């Protein structure tokens, strides 16, 4: 399953928003996700993709598109390791 | 001291007999049992086979999905009962001064979440603990979640005195209003702590019924009683000062006239009738009620050998010979022992008893016990005018708390 679809499924499950409102430019504010949602999404992403997302990297993704690119990068780094 | 009068304007309940007050009363007045086989875990290797579960409850019907995800079952049950009570009381927070509306509730920690939290720690390590751990195991979460949901900014806390907790919470809320800290208190208890670790532990104390047949398991005051049945559920009551209720035209169901406490300081599990009698006596005095004015006692009546005989003795100490003419019954015979919410659910039942003029029975009563020789309203409900009701809660370990609920007399 493509990364974007997997991430969308995670966000819909945790934030309880409609999938239709999730676009590459959607921010956490746009989808009414609070800090507790963000932490849960993070943990779910780590579990699902088997990657680590250090706390200091959180500022790297301002929207869903950035988050997808971030996950792709981390997976690629893992593949090269 | 002139105490502010406090009245009950709304009640809500989610119990093994149903998901609202109407279903609860229908079951109680029909002598129906909410006790059945444990469905939450495989009991093949357990000596305890039965419990009293809330059935067919879908929290998503009553609250936002995020609340469902983030909070434990006790909060789901409590919010549902609170909504019912607030609707009955016609309590509209938009018309209230938020700082004058508060909450005191009781609950028990749900061990399931502690176990899952520990497993998460083992699996993911300390860097990635469960972010929902605290909201799921904090005993303060029932009061705080309801408070946040409705915007109540008055006193907000949780009490626990084991099996006396629900009554204790209501009594504490009563005093908050009497002392002027609030005009409205949403109070009661919610307990969904029923799970394998608790059952296994209580079984070691011999406290739980090991009867395989649900119909025989909970038999308060019966000669062959052998332990209580663990239950789950929520009971919520809206308390208001009499003046506040009259001013806003609230429906007044009854008066919460008195509360009393005592603590056995005796044994971790065995009760002491003399100290239970002290709690009853203090409650009657607080309510300004003489023993002979009590029409009905909603018993703690757990169906353990010790509680039921001790409670009988305590009643005789306070009431003397008139103990023999007061009907007494145990709601636990039908809904099991809902631990931290028991007293709250029983307070709701007491209000319903008064409103409907019917005393729910003590069911599964087959063989009288010479040590329990009072009138326990066996098996069949009884029509009766109840103007003054005493509700007892005697916790494991010695926490005793009682309430007097009276028919309101306008004066």
Q: Can you describe this structure?
A:
The complex is a heterodimer of chains A (81) and B (411). Chain A has 81 residues and is an all-alpha fold. Chain A has one domain: Non-ribosomal Peptide Synthetase Peptidyl Carrier Protein, Chain A (Orthogonal Bundle), CATH 1.10.1200.10. Chain A has three helices and no strands. Chain A has helices spanning 3-15, 35-49, 64-80. Chain A is globular. Chain B has two domains: 6-247, 3-Layer(aba) Sandwich (Peroxisomal Thiolase, Chain A, domain 1); 259-406, Thiolase/Chalcone synthase (Peroxisomal Thiolase, Chain A, domain 1). Chain B is 35% helix and 18% strand. Chain B has 14 helices and 14 strands. Chain B has helices spanning 21-30, 65-70, 73-89, 111-124, 133-137, 141-150, 165-178, 196-204, 214-217, 242-247, 273-287, 305-319, 332-335, 342-356, and strands at residues 6-14, 36-37, 50-51, 101-106, 156-159, 184-191, 233-241, 254-263, 296-298, 328-329, 358-359, 382-383, 388-394, 399-406. Chain B has a ten-stranded mixed β-sheet, with helices on both faces. Chain B has a two-stranded antiparallel ribbon with strand order 2-3. In chain B, strands 11-12 form a two-stranded antiparallel sheet. The chains are: A mainly alpha (81), B alpha/beta (411). Chains A and B meet through helix 2 of A and helix 2 of B.
